[in-house]
Design a protein that fits this description.
elongated; 86 residues; mainly alpha; 3 helices
Length: 86
């Protein structure tokens, strides 16, 4: 069972590092670039994955994942509203 937990931890580590990037000062600019690169569907999928992952993490890492998810969701909403206008 410990091997399974270690494998899950190894899988989560890159996601956590990615999410922690959203805690830096330029997080919204970074989020806009990530969302632009991934597109609406990709950014939505990443936001959902981060949200799911947050339930299994320590408070600090969970906060980073939720913050990243919120920023990406905000960028997706903005992209969709701009698409609706044009």
């Amino acid at each position: 069972m410990d091997d399974l937990k270690d494998a899950a931890d190894d899988h989560a580590r890159p996601w956590i590092e990615f999410a922690r990037r959203f805690l830096e000062a330029d997080s919204y600019r970074y989020g806009a670039r990530v969302a632009d690169a991934l597109g609406v569907h990709g950014a939505s999928a990443v936001a959902m994955a981060l949200r799911r992952l947050s339930s299994r993490l320590s408070a600090r890492d969970a906060f980073a994942c939720v913050e990243a998810s919120d920023i990406l969701c905000g960028e997706v909403e903005e992209m969709e509203s701009l698409r609706a206008v044009s």
